[in-house]
Write a structure and sequence with these properties.
Strand content: 25-35%
Distance between the termini: 17 Å
Helix content: 10-25%
Strand order of the largest sheet: 1-4-5
Largest sheet: 3 strands, antiparallel
Bound molecules: zinc ion
Radius of gyration: 11 Å
Oligomer: single chain
Number of helices: 2
Structural class: alpha+beta
Length: about 70
Amino acid sequence: MAVTPELVPLDSRYELAARCLVCGSEIAAGEGVSARYRGQALRFQCASCLARFELDPDRYLGGHESGCC
Ligand SMILES: [Zn+2]
């Protein structure tokens, strides 16, 4: 899948615990998948959630979660 140019992968080792932007699952510090998008560091539970975000970024940035993988 083509990566959105604005979506820059981050190293999750340095990221804090957070909720997945796509599915709302809790992600432990240093785990999951992280990416920077328009200046914001975003956290995802897994690559599948990141892929869903790529398909429709505005939906998830607007607070609409969906189910997980
Ligand atoms: Zn998720």
